[in-house]
Amino acid sequence: MKKMFMHSPLEQFEMKMLLMMNDMLALSMTNYVVYLGMVSFMMYNMMTLLNKTNLEWNRWGLAMLAMYDTMLNMVKSQMGNKGGYYFPLMFTLFTFMLMANLVSMMPYSFAMSAQLVPVVSLSLSLWLGVTMLGLAKHKLVYFSLFVPNGTPLPLVPVLVLMETLSNSSRAMSLGLRLSANVLSGHLLMLMLGSLMFNLMNSSMFGMFFGMMPMLGVVAMVMLEFAMSMMQAYVFCMLFSGYMKDSMYLH
Amino acid sequence: MINRIALRAVAPTKMAVRPSSIGLRYMSTPVEPKEKANTIVDAMPGNNLLSKTGYLAAAAAASAYGISNGLIVLHDETILVACFTAFGALAAKFGAPLYTSWADDEIKKVRDLLNGSRAKHVNAVKERIENVNQLKDVVETTKQLFAVSKETAELEAKIFELKQQSALAAEAKSTLDSWVRFEQQQRQLEQEQLIKSVLSKVNKEIENPKFQEKVLNESVTEIEKLFAKA
């Protein structure tokens, strides 16, 4: 019975086994998979709402439409009209990140985006896809991306090395940025919560004064909500930038 | 300078008008404590005081049971629950009305636009129906026009035929006239030749002494007869 409850605040970052399959973690049902299902269900509902909004306008649908419009503008400003081909991917990614981040903001829930392995795997596969897209589109000319325009010849080897490192580090940095932001935000909130709890637990005096930082923590919660949305947007914006590089080179 | 002096003169009056600050909430609307208490009691679940007390007691008992049996665990995350609830309340109190008014405005804007377009479309369709209505006699009119054009074609054909006939008649007349003129010329020529031949014969006859004698004799005879009568 007691296993159902969370006894440590850091438990929200732990991946728990809910249904073991063949003694393999990869194929087992974990809380991550449950949240993945929840997020997918929410995304499906959101898309349904968005489709209904075409003719029947409502307040929720308007928010969805505003998100859709924002993403479309971002994709078009980054990649031009040809970016429209990749808009479904971009919007799905954004919706997924947003839903995952917002769900993790619920107290006692599980922070999906703070899990480094899945998020970095996602960013790595996206980077691979973008690289393959560039190679398929430009063949060997794609490697001109590693030589900036107007580079003096003696500097070319150094710059190629640096650009290669910079380009390949995108695979990690994209996911790491999101994961680190979400993790740090959640940890900060938890630390503040812990501070307040300890203060309030100390004495009656502490109980009274421990309430005072409450406003600060509420402000932090607001900031974290804003961060959840911004990080999803930033992830997609950076990925659009990488895709633009692959599509148009310099 | 004069302004400053004037302001100084007015300042004591202003100070007298301003209400004296009596605490943190001196700007708030004063509420009767009894009314405030009643509103709090009314906000609780239940129809009368007994049921309200029952609900409160049950909630307190449930909380105590939950905490003592470890069903409700109070720890750091509980603070975050409170903060999250406060954030939710703030969002519902301040954010939601703003969003609702914005969304309603947007929806109204789009709805007005759609309704406007719909009305325009309905008007356009009505106009088209009216235009088509005006053309409802088009079959009859076309039939009449066809009959008229047929009649015109027939008349034109007749005119052409008559023109041809008149042209033929004119041609025949001019030919006949030329024939007449030719025959007249021929006749004139023949008459002239006849006159010439008669004159030449007469002249020849006149030159004949026998004829001259004969004419003379006849003339003398005539004259004698005349004289005899006289």
Protein model, in words:
The complex is a heterodimer of chains A (250) and B (230). The radius of gyration of chain A is 22 Å and the shape is globular. Chain A has helices at residues 31-52, 59-79, 87-105, 116-138, 156-202, 204-209, 214-248; strands spanning 17-21, 24-30. Chain A is mainly α. The model of chain A is unreliable at 1-5 (pLDDT under 50). Chain B has 230 residues and is mostly helical. Chain B has three domains: 15-72, no CATH class; 97-136; 139-229. The radius of gyration of chain B is 70 Å and the shape is rod-shaped. Chain A: This is ATP synthase subunit a. Chain A: Keywords: Mitochondrion. Chain B: It comes from [Candida] jaroonii. Chain B: This is ATP synthase subunit 4, mitochondrial.
Q: Helicity of chain A, in percent?
A: 55-70%
Structural domain count of chain A: 1
How many DSSP-defined strands of chain A?
Answer: 2
User: Order of strands in the sheet with the most strands of chain A?
Assistant: 1-2
Beta-strand segment tally of chain B: 0
Distance between the termini of chain B: 173 Å
**Structural shape of chain B:** rod-shaped
- Order of helices and strands of chain B, N to C? HHHHHH
Strand content of chain A: under 5%
Query: Based on helices, strands and strand pairing, what is the structural class of chain B?
Result: mainly alpha
How many domain modules of chain B? Answer: 3
Overall average residue pLDDT of chain A:
86
Classify the oligomer: heterodimer
Give start-end ranges of low-pLDDT stretches of chain A.
1-5
**Overall pLDDT of chain B, averaged?**
85
Instruction: Please mark out the parts of chain B with pLDDT under 50 across 5 or more consecutive residues, or reply none.
Output: 9-17
Largest sheet of chain B: none
Instruction: Determine the strand fraction of chain B and express it as a percent band.
Output: under 5%
Gyration radius from CA atoms of chain B, angstroms: 70 Å
Protein name (chain A): ATP synthase subunit a
Keywords (chain A): Mitochondrion
Organism (chain A): [Candida] jaroonii
Organism (chain B): [Candida] jaroonii
